[in-house]
Amino acid sequence: YQDFNKQQQKERLSKGLAFVNERLPKIKQQVIQSEANLQKFRKRYNIVDPQVQSTILLESIAAIRKELDTTTAQLQDIEARYRNLEQQIAASPSNALVSSRLSQSTRYQSLLVEIQKTELALAQERQRFTDNSPTVQKLLEQRQSQLVLLRQEAGRSLGDKAEVAYNISQPLLTKGQLAGVDLQLVEDLIKFQTEALGLRANQQSLMESERLMRSKLNEYPALIAEYNRLLPEVETNRKTLAQLMEVRQSLALKIA
Is the pTM of this model over 0.85? Predict the structure, then answer.
């Protein structure tokens, strides 16, 4: 009777082991396939965990919005000071002539456009690199060169005497149609123009970054739903495989 029971037990264990061995290849394949699906998902969207990434994206949007608010406030301040300066210039015929000449100078206006492009490129690169990077350094040098050309063009547009007086910051204009020009106002005019260009470029770059991030954030609910379907599938298959391996080891020991 005892021999019979041992034989029956051995047969049951052998059948159980055979069943486990039969199931193992299928479960292993399911693990491989589910892991491949998860890896393909991560590679396609270049993310590891969309839930974590969406949180980081929200924090980045908040930081950009804060910086954008600061930039907008600075720009409004510069524009207010620029309007006040325009009123001061308009109050003096000589200064008004300066403003008119600068606005009519094609070269001066072209340089302003070039500086605006440089400022925009600089604002975009500063979001990716520090000021020590070669790309940012090159743009900073380019902007400095353009500012020098802008000041030279301002002096040329105002005439040789004005250029001399402007370059050495001394009131040498004593006669002619530009006599009485306040060169400090000219300096402030150029300063406010270039500062406004930089702030507008930074504002535009920040707004574009925010737009892109919000557009990307709108994709995350679907990505999170798909990820939450793929990840549990991987975890379930891995758990099932581990349990079957443990059962097989246990059955093999009992049979032995």
Answer: no
